[in-house]
Amino acid sequence: MKENVFSLQLSVIRKVTTCLILLVTFHLLLVTALAGASLTSVHAQGFNVASSHEITDKEAVSGDILIYDGANGLVRTNVTYSQKIFGVYTETPSLVIREASASAKPIIRLGDVDVNVTDYNGEIKKGDYVTTSPVSGKGMKAGQSGYVLGLALADAVYGDQTVTAEGGNYRLGTVNTALRIEYAELTTARSNIKLLSDLNAAFFRSVQDPEKFTLTIRYIIAGLVALLAFAIGFFYLARSISKAVEAIGRNPLARTAIITSVGLQVAATLIGGVVTIGIIFIIVRI
Questions:
Q1: Cβ atoms of residues 95 and 52 within 8 Å
Q2: Total domain count for the chain?
Q3: pLDDT, tens digit, for every residue of 43-64?
Q4: Do 107 and 230 sit in the same domain of this protein?
Q5: 8 A C-beta contact, residue 245 and residue 179
Q6: What CA–CA distances, in Å, run from 274 to 38, 132, 268?
Q7: What is the longest distance spanned by two Cα atoms in the chain?
Q8: Residue 89 and residue 24: Cα distance in Å, rounded?
Q9: DSSP code string of 38-72
Q10: Do residues 247 and 254 make contact, with C-beta atoms less than 8 angstroms apart?
Q11: Are 152 and 227 part of one and the same domain?
Q12: Rounded to the nearest 10 degrees, how much is the dihedral formed by the CA atoms of 72, 74, 80, 84?
């Protein structure tokens, strides 16, 4: 009788234990499924954390790229591949750390965020690096090594709105970007064509400011004077040395006089260089 009761109790315990194990397993599977769905949703929508800062540039809008410009604070920039990139201003952050100041705005430095861009350097495709452009606050496709904002997670979407920059019209749009502010070493280095493009952009900006334009013209004239003086001095000095060598070969007895003549020529060239420096200084300081 006792053995039957013991067997019955053991059977009940086994069944209860089996039920508990099944319940625990089901619970774990349910939690795992929900967590996976939650993570997938977060990844699809993009997640970012913003901190609040005072934005000096009052014309900045959500999605604009901001730089930290020392005494000027957080402002937009029209400098390509800016080394001062700080982050992206957004009005819809996933999570924001607020400051005591009510006027502070959320700025994202890490995470996924929609960035305002242009097609200044071509349309931005998924996987392209995004950097600053000549359009204030807007990004562009990075086509060379330099500082970048991050990596495009999708193709940029452009609208009908355009903006004028450096004599051309470019479309405005947005692109979802994974922020990672760093120096990116791309396969296309800074070439001579890009250097000329940068010089052209700098000259175009100076034309818009009369004072800067005048100063630019002075520097150009000073550079031309320096180049011309160097070319003339080098030409006559090289010719004098060549003729001196030939003269010494023909008349070794006149060696001392010939070397003295070359020395005077070198001295004259140095004096001409000093005079040129003085002329350049006067041109720049006028």
A1: no
A2: 3
A3: 444 677 788 889 999 999 999 9
A4: no
A5: no
A6: 74, 42, 10
A7: 142
A8: 46
A9: HHHHHHHH--EEEEEE-BS-TT--TT-EEEE-GGG
A10: yes
A11: no
A12: 90
